[in-house]
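Case study: GNAT family N-acetyltransferase.
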Amino acid sequence: MMLCVPESLETSRLILRQFRESDWQDLHLYYSSETATQFTVGRAFSEGETWRTLCSMVGHWQFRGYGPYAIEHKETGKVLGTAGFWYPNDWPEPEIKWALAPEYWGQGYASEAARGVQQAGRECMPDMRLISFIHSENHASIQLAKAIGAVFEKEVNFRGGLWHIYRHPS
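Here is what the predicted structure looks like once written out:
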């Protein structure tokens, strides 16, 4: 299947683009936070682990033809986190993911980025039924999924916890 997923997207305040090696330092604000990572990777990462995770997101684009974007703030040029398409080999289905460093929470950046990714998915992958795969206790992400129109579908056991599948509108 040939996909037309753009290498970058633009919203009113953000540029969603492919990662650069230099992005790991900004991205580490997310991955080094125990609070931010408690429902995703489950713990704070070292700088080396953040760098390797960034490399895995770049590699995802190579293997799948789509992947996560760096969320760059237009005015500051800072990378706030990541949002995009994600489908690791142990995931139930392809998803729209988002993750921001805590200092950027509550400002609408995650929903703005996720809406941009949804739109790209509808245009470029219309046959792919996208989900968001969210830990059952991650209330902020559940609230965001609902706010952008995703609907709870089911609960599944995954990596020792309960996770929810939220289906995005086609």
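For the exam, be able to explain this: The domain at 8-126 is CATH 3.40.630.30 (Aminopeptidase).
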